[in-house]
Write a structure and sequence with these properties.
The protein contains 9 helices and 4 strands. It is α+β, with helices and mostly antiparallel strands and 209 residues long. The chain is globular. Bound molecules: flavin mononucleotide. The site of flavin mononucleotide (FMN) has 11 residues, from loops.
Length: 209
């Protein structure tokens, strides 16, 4: 299985070769992999900023726990979750389902109400946790797609959310930074690429019944 080879090849890249850029064609493939991610109910309540602009990334660097990948990588993916539950997002999703799957809004009414009701039961912290989880699924697809294309990446929680939100003007858009991933090509000087992978044995992770 080629995917397993790709997953063994990838690693959380610490140092990127800043002279190498991901081309537009590959970038579109990465976006499509993120677009195809699973999400609860299919709602996809997030935005992904793909930042190549040097100046913006320089501004983010001091709030990235000194991690130079933010500026050295080709692109910085910033996954942003919606900060609140808005009924119109569910309505838009239902309308789009009806259109794409050739059904009527009436047939989807009870599903729409079910989604709205289950989301409205969440308090603020439950919403935050749930909505961030969605972005992690998208991140996972991005990392896997990168590996398939032999593009390097590093998932990163090491950043100051409030500062990212301020610099990227996210709050006024009802968004908050959830997780980031610099994407590009490893530097030959990144010694972590030669480290053996540390993973628990399969027998420790799985219990078979
Ligand atoms: C949610 C999440 C946050 C992470 N944050 C960082 C980070 O801020 N900086 C970093 O260098 N690596 C970060 N990592 C990378 C992990 O340390 C790495 O994936 C793990 O040690 C396994 O190593 P591998 O990815 O090289 O196989 C993060 C990984 C995940 C999944």
């Amino acid at each position: 299985m080629r995917l397993l080879e790709s997953l063994k090849w990838r690693y959380a890249t610490k140092k990127f070769d800043s002279s190498r850029k991901v081309n537009e064609n590959d970038l579109e493939k990465l976006k499509e992999a993120v677009q195809l991610s699973v999400s609860s109910y299919g709602l996809q309540l997030y935005k992904v900023l793909v930042i190549s602009d040097k100046e913006t990334r320089e501004k983010l660097l001091p709030f990235s726990w000194g991690q130079s990948q933010v500026t050295e990588a080709s692109h910085l993916f910033v996954f942003c979750n919606y900060t609140e539950h808005r009924e119109e997002d569910v309505d838009a999703y239902i309308a789009s389902t009806a259109k794409i799957q050739g059904t009527t809004l009436e047939k989807l009414t009870s599903y729409r109400n079910f989604i709205k009701e289950s989301l409205s039961r969440m308090n603020w912290s439950e919403w935050q946790a749930w909505s961030e989880k969605q972005t992690y699924l998208a991140l996972s697809n991005l990392l896997t797609a990168c590996a398939e294309l032999k593009i390097d990446a590093c998932p990163m929680e090491g950043f100051d959310r409030e500062d990212y939100n301020k610099i990227l003007k996210l709050e006024e858009r009802g968004l908050s930074t959830s997780i980031i991933a610099p994407v590009g090509y490893r530097s030959a000087d990144d010694h972590t690429q030669f480290r053996k992978k540390v993973r628990k044995p399969i027998t420790e992770i799985f219990e078979m019944f």
